[in-house]
Amino acid sequence: MATYAELIKLCSKKLKLEWIYGKSKSDRNLLSDEQSAHYPSLNVGFLNIIHPERLHIIGTPEVAFINKIGEKEQTGLINQFKEFNSLGFVICENRELPEFFIKKIIEANIPFFQSDSTPEDTLTIIRQSMVRLAAPSCSMHGVFMDVFGIGVLLTGQSGIGKSELGLELVTRGHGLVADDVVDFIQRGPNWIEGSAPALLANLLEVRGIGLLDVKTIFGETSVRRKLKLELVAELKQFEQGELMDRLPETELYTEILGQQIRTMIIPVGGGRNLAVLVEAAVRSAILQKRGINTIQEFFNRQRELMEKED
Q1: Partners of 184 in the beta sheet?
Q2: Residue 100, strand partner residues
Q3: In CATH, what class is 137-299?
Q4: Contact 200/178 with Cβ under 8 angstroms?
Q5: CA–CA separation, 221 vs 4, rounded Å?
Q6: Could you state, in order of their start, the residue ranges of all structural domains in the chain?
Q7: How far apart are CA 195 and CA 79, in angstroms?
Q8: Cα–Cα dist 67/98, whole Å
Q9: Model's pTM, two decimal places?
Q10: How far is residue 182 from each of residues 157, 232, 256, measured CA to CA in Å?
């Protein structure tokens, strides 16, 4: 849910946003209706009487306007904002508002924030954060790795060896993004970004050993904070007699947040070096992105040979 607390957390790295009044509404959903969810950036703007429901940014011109109108007009303004359940006010560059206006804000219990940044920067950063809060997201079970710069999600049934494979890939110079639980968020039309929950950041659980702090053991370059998802590598244990396509004619895909992510099946069995297989799968995916399809080229060669024989 997109709450005030989440908004402040997102803004904190680029913007010093301090909550002054109305903290009782900290759990309020900022994008509660359909229009807000589809157009989140429109929920923030400079002081606007026509759209009182927004989060209003107050700079020098807005302060001058409020100082110019009388207490009766200020009261009517606040009552209108309260009636439309306004998201609140953000006063920028530590400017001061009339005491009477502040008093009415407190009485109406309207959220009020203070920012030391310019109104333009404050508006831009809050709008970006609103869009991020509204973006589709989900959590999935698996191990998310950086292999040759490609974001690879290792999936498969519990206990099949995903974390052990992740550990081996780390020892081969690749990077861990997340283990066990991976949080995905859609950053763009063709961009899904994965990261680890804060509780599990840099941690890898290996059966029989326990939790490993990968960053501490292998160094800074062994972990990644976030990465674009480009490939799903599904570890699968084939039963005796079960057949699998040795040369699949059609590509496999897994749907995540409405996006089709290229998928490769990695057979699990005694004597198989899964790390090498995953690396080979990633290299093959990189070639396919460049328009080089080895299987299709093989089929073309076979077809040409058959035509010559005819």
Answers
A1: 138, 194
A2: none
A3: alpha beta
A4: yes
A5: 34
A6: 4-134, 137-299
A7: 43
A8: 7
A9: 0.72
A10: 15, 13, 12
Active-site positions?
A: 141, 162, 180, 246
Tens digits of pLDDT across the chain (310 residues): 688 888 888 888 788 888 898 888 888 888 766 656 667 878 899 999 899 999 999 999 999 999 999 999 999 999 999 999 899 999 999 888 999 999 999 999 999 999 989 999 999 999 988 888 888 889 999 999 999 999 999 999 888 889 999 999 999 999 999 999 999 998 878 899 999 998 999 999 988 888 999 999 999 999 999 999 999 999 988 665 555 565 566 678 899 998 999 998 888 877 778 999 999 989 988 887 777 777 677 667 777 777 776 6
* Closest of 130, 126, 132, 220 to residue 170, by C-alpha: 220
- Cα separation, 47 vs 64, whole angstroms: 12
CATH of segment(s) 4-134: 3.40.1390.20
Residue 196 one-letter amino acid: A
